[in-house]
Amino acid sequence: MGEKPKHTAGPWEIDSVSLSNMGALEIKGIGWRGSRIVAVAQFSGGSEDPEVRANARLIEAAPELLQVVELVLAGYDAPLGVARDWREWAERARGAISKARGE
Question: What is the pLDDT, as a whole number, of residue 88?
Answer without folding.
Answer: 85
